[in-house]
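Q: Fold this one first, please.
A: Sequence and structure below.
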Amino acid sequence: MHAIHDAQDIHVGIGEYKVAQSPGRLVTLGLGSCVGVTLWDPVTKIGGLLHIMLPNSKEFSRINKKGKYADLGIPMVINEMVKQGAGRGRIQAKLVGGAQMFIGADKKQLLFNIGERNVESSRKILKDMRINIAGEEVGGNKGRTIYLDLQTGKVTIRTIGQDIKVI
C-alpha cells in the first residue's frame, strides 16, 4: 500500500479536474454529495479525475467552472485525455461519492437529493458517451477521499470510520 501522502500526488479541488499520465496518483478530498469520476486508459496509463458538484449546468444561467457540472465536465475530461493520447474506446470510468449528507435535516433537502442526482447524471453521460463504468462506490452518508493510481487504474477509497476500499 502506498503511503497516504505521496510526492507524486496531484490534487484535484472541488469543481475541478486534472488529466495526467503515470506515474503518480490523482487525488480528491472530501467527496460528500459530490461525485468523483475517474477515467483511465489501461494502455497509455493516462487518467483523469473530475470532482463534480452538480448534475446539470442547464439549471444555471451563469457557468463559472465547467468542471463543477457532470454534463460539461465529463466530456471535457475525456476530450483532454484523447488529446494527450488516450484511446477513446479504451477509457474506463469509476464513480465514487454521491452521499446523502443531510438525512433528516428537512424534507426539502431529501427531495433535492443532490448526491443521488450527481450519480445518476454521471452514469447517463458516461452511457451516452459509450464509456464503460468499471466500478462504483456511491451513496451512503459519509464523506470519502479517493486516489486514482495512474499506473494500475485502481481507485483507493478512504471513508472516515471504515476500512480502506479499492475498486
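Q: Good. Now the second chain.
A: Here it is, same layout.
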Amino acid sequence: MSRAKGNIAEDKACAFLCEKGFEIVERNFYSRFGEIDIIVTKDNVLHFVEVKSGEDYEKAIQNITRSKLSKFIKTVHVYLKKHALDVDFMIDAVVVTPESIELVENITL
C-alpha cells in the first residue's frame, strides 16, 4: 500500500475513533522496531492502534502477522518507557475497508 493510501486510512481511523469518544494522543510514533499508527486514550486506558486497510475485512486483518505484532509490542514498550508511563493499555486495530471501519480491541495472536 502506498504511503498516501495509508495516510487516508489513518485519517479515517482517527475520525472514527474521535466519534467513538477516544482522544488522540499521538500519531506515527517510531522506534527502531517499527511504528505505532495512532495512540489514543479513553476511560483512563491508553490504546495503541494499528491501522489496516484493504478491499475487504479479511484481507486487511490478515496483514497483522505474528512478526508485525511482536514488533508492534516492542514499540509499545519503547513508548511507555520513553514517556515514563505506568498505565493500563491495550493494543487494538482499526480495519478500514471501502464499506466500513471496525475497531478490533485487544488484539493478540
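Q: Anything worth noting on the second one?
A: The chain has one domain: 3-104.
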